[in-house]
């Protein structure tokens, strides 16, 4: 008996699967926000930066830099949270390699946060300084 050709995926089913994957992603962000203090701090910082950007009337290219910096920090923090969860799952007891994995992931967040801070200082520093100097 000859094999029949695979049936093409039906578009509505594909669309439902894509929508479900977004749902999983949003659930992951929400779970991390509920449990991770550092992510909660990043959320507060994000709100502050968005408020400052609105107050100072950032240019479009400046908003792009803010969006990239904020997105970088959030992404790194979420990946760090995922790495910590997996390491805790596979190595509940302390192991030097598990500790190193967690430290390196945290270091990536730190590097991204420092880069975002530099962007913030370059964009907002002169504006805040001009306000204070008046």
Automatic annotation (TrEMBL):
A divalent metal cation binds at residues 36, 84. InterPro entries: DAGK, DAGK_sf, UDPK. Its cofactor is Mg(2+). The chain crosses the membrane at residues 37-57, 63-83, 104-124. One of its GO terms (biological process) is phospholipid biosynthetic process. The active site is at residue 77. Keywords: ATP-binding, Cell membrane, Kinase, Lipid biosynthesis, Lipid metabolism, Magnesium, Membrane, Metal-binding, Nucleotide-binding, Phospholipid biosynthesis, Phospholipid metabolism, Transferase, Transmembrane, Transmembrane helix. PANTHER family: DIACYLGLYCEROL KINASE. This is Diacylglycerol kinase family protein.
């Amino acid at each position: 008996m000859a094999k029949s050709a695979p049936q093409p995926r039906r578009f509505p089913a594909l669309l439902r699967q894509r929508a479900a994957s977004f749902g999983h992603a949003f659930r992951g962000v929400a779970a991390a926000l509920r449990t991770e203090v550092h992510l909660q701090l990043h959320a507060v910082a994000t709100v502050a930066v968005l408020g400052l950007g609105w107050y100072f009337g950032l240019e479009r290219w400046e908003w792009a830099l803010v969006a990239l910096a904020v997105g970088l920090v959030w992404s790194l923090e979420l990946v760090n949270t995922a790495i910590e969860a997996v390491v805790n799952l596979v190595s509940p007891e302390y192991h030097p390699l598990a500790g190193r994995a967690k430290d390196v992931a945290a270091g990536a967040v730190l590097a991204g946060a420092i880069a975002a801070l530099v962007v913030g200082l370059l964009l907002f520093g002169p504006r805040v300084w001009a306000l204070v100097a008046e």
